[in-house]
Structure formats: C-alpha cells, structure tokens
Specification:
Layout lengths: L24 E6 L10 H13 L3 E8 L3 E8 L7 H14 L15 E4 L3 H12 L1 H4 L12 E3 L8
Antiparallel strand pairs: 1-3, 1-4, 2-3, 2-5
Length: 158
C-alpha cells in the first residue's frame, strides 16, 4: 500500500451487497496532520469503547499505528448508514471524549475504504495490516505490537 497522502481524495465506491455474501470493508483513518496520537493504551481503550457503542457496524480486526488506524468492519444490521457516516459518528464520539484536549483536532475529515471481494483478499489484507508495525520499525514481530485486536469475528461466506 502506498503513502496515503498521495491522493487528494479517497476513491469512492458504494457498498455492493450481493445475496448470501458477506460485506466486509477495509477502512483506514488518519489523524489530522498525521499527528502520532493513536498508539497508546488510553486511546485504544477509548476507541474500543466507541466502536462498541457505535453498533450499526461491527469492528473486526484492527491495528492502531501512531498516526493512522486500519480496521475491518461489516454492517451489523440490514438498515445501516454508509461506512463514511458511521466513521464520522465514531470519530466525533472519540473526539468528544479524547484524553488530551490540546491534541484537537484528532482526525482527518475523510476516510479510506475498500470493500473486500473475496475471503482470500480478507486474509491477505489482514496479513498486510498485521505486519504494518514491523514495516514501520516499531516492533520486530507483529504479535509484539500491543495496539491491535479483534472485537468481532467477521467471517467470509462465499
């Protein structure tokens, strides 16, 4: 994956729902001006709480990097807001409860999202995301990075 700042705006595609097929979206959210705010326990706990409260989408696996986060998500119900509206909602909730007011604004205004098309792309994308802290020189082994987890098991059904 290239530098997220290369494009001015994220590519936009609507969520495509196909009968009896899982909808899983890969989402990347960056901090404002790429400030290194996310890789700490207090922020991780806050985000997990906010994601659990923002229950129209389910968060699966996630990784918090210092200046951005990656997560996989899926609609939790038939009538769900767009992934962008859902992200705006939880970013707003997290900003309101942010531990350090001096770090505001916390988030870039937009998000980068990509709907996964196959179970194989889900596995491949997770392997890539899981190794992000290693590629950035933050840890030697992906499993040593403390700011990652899985809130819900998002299963791919072809």
């Amino acid at each position: 994956m290239g530098d997220l700042t290369e494009r001015k705006h994220p590519a936009r595609q609507s969520i495509f729902e196909q009968r009896n097929r899982a909808v899983i979206v890969f989402l990347t959210v960056c901090t404002a001006k790429r400030k290194p705010l996310l890789a700490n326990t207090a922020v991780q706990e806050l985000l997990v709480d906010v994601w659990c409260e923002s229950d129209l989408w389910l968060v699966g696996c996630y990784v918090l990097m210092p200046d951005h986060l990656h997560l996989f998500c899926a609609p939790a119900c038939v009538e769900h807001p767009s992934v962008r509206k859902w992200a705006q909602y939880w970013k707003s909730r997290a900003s309101t409860r942010w531990p350090n007011r001096l770090e505001q604004p916390v988030w870039q205004s937009d998000v980068w999202d990509r709907q996964l098309r196959t179970g194989e792309s889900y596995s491949e994308k997770w392997a890539y995301v899981l190794n992000n802290p290693v590629r950035h020189g933050l840890v030697k082994n992906a499993e040593d990075w403390p700011y990652q987890g899985e809130l819900n098991s998002l299963l791919w059904h072809d």
